[in-house]
Write a structure and sequence with these properties.
binds zinc ion, globular, Lysozyme-like, alpha+beta, 21% strand, 6-stranded mixed β-sheet, 6-stranded antiparallel β-sheet
Length: 358
């Protein structure tokens, strides 16, 4: 009887254990944090698989016990945390870290915070309070909390716990999504309209926006930090997602053409062209390129993309034949379009194709 009861108890424990560990996602527990809702973010329903990166920032300000914020000119803001609560500022982060290891969660991970422009939809943004130019901002308490938080998030969302190389300007994950504008001195103008960083993993804001950001700065201990995140994950039995290669992550970036307006046009076919510049871009096949946003334009029919023109190691150009049965007035960003034999070209192109109804 006693033996039977023990066996029954053991079986019950195993069942409970299975329920508790869920569908096989083990990993470190969520660290202690408080919740203060940010004023500006986008409601979404992101899940494991949608989120591929954590972006580390510095606020370039002070996180004080009363959550007030002092910038480097010693002006006091209602801020850092309060700064992100304020509705009149269109910036936010998922988490804000304090020097004593405080963690304030301000945007639910399923929602999109306004932290790093084009990269927001795929990322979790973490702001560390302090100034990146001071090595002492990386207090042991803040680093412990950051490691615990990132290890928890990497395990929960299957984010690779590694720092990928390069930036949106250079390295294997740098993608040029449109032809850069040529400035008067003959140099290509690069920046937010043309350059994309496609990597997954634990990344710095400077990698995503090299044209205007340098955080978390020169003193952030990347190697030690990422090694500690991996160690904590394996200590809790979590699997370490590998860094995907540039070819895989580039596909997501190639598919970011956006069509801003719905429309209508007069039935003649026209061609959409996209040049992709970046290491190995020539190896990308037309069949790998998708333009999901085309489906959002009413009555627009997109044909198969074909590789045309220069397909060197650094550049591949694709053309997609498009047709619309009625009238068209719509905009494409970062693209090049041929209508009735004329190419229109701009890094942020607002093409308006207007045709009289025949
Ligand atoms: Zn930043």
């Amino acid at each position: 009887m006693g033996l039977l009861r023990t066996a029954f108890g053991l079986a019950l424990l195993m069942i409970v254990g299975t329920i508790l560990t869920g569908c096989g996602h083990s990993g470190p527990p969520a660290p202690k944090m408080n919740w203060v809702e940010a004023g500006s973010y986008r409601k979404d329903n992101r899940k494991r698989g949608d989120i591929v990166a954590i972006v580390i920032h510095t606020t370039e300000g002070n996180y004080k016990d009363d959550l007030s914020f002092v910038d480097n000119h010693n002006r006091t803001f209602a801020g850092n945390v309060k700064y992100f609560v304020s509705n009149d500022r269109s910036v936010s982060a998922h988490y804000v870290m304090g020097p004593n290891g405080e963690i304030t969660n301000m945007v639910k991970v399923r929602d999109v915070a306004h932290t790093q422009t084009y990269y927001n939809g795929r990322a979790i943004g973490i702001e560390c309070a302090g100034w990146g130019r001071f090595p002492e901002m990386w207090t042991p308490q803040m680093m412990d909390s950051l490691v615990n938080l990132c290890a928890y998030l990497c395990a929960k969302y299957d984010i690779p716990p590694y720092q990928p190389e390069g930036t949106a300007y250079e390295g294997p994950y740098a993608i040029v999504i449109g032809d850069p504008a040529i400035s008067e001195d003959g140099k290509a103008k690069r920046g937010p309209n043309t350059d994309r960083y496609s990597a997954h993993g634990l990344v710095g804001h400077y990698q995503v926006q090299p044209w205007n950001k340098s955080d978390p700065g020169p003193h952030f201990p990347w190697a030690v930090f990422t090694a500690r995140v991996r160690q904590r994950m394996t200590d809790y039995g979590a699997k370490l997602a590998p860094l995907p290669g540039p070819e895989d992550t580039a596909k997501e970036v190639y598919a970011t053409a956006t069509i801003k307006e719905d429309a209508a046009t007069a039935g003649k076919p026209f061609t959409y062209q996209r040049s992709i510049v970046g290491k190995g871009a020539g190896a990308i096949n037309a069949s790998d390129i998708t333009f999901p946003n085309f489906a959002k334009v009413k009555d627009l029919v997109a044909g198969e993309p074909t590789k045309t023109g220069d397909a060197s190691e650094n550049r591949a150009t694709f053309e997609v034949p498009l047709t619309m049965p009625k009238v068209a007035s719509f905009a494409l960003t970062a693209s090049r379009i041929n209508f009735n034999g004329t190419w229109t070209d701009s890094p942020t192109l607002d093409v308006k194709v207007e045709q009289p109804i025949p």
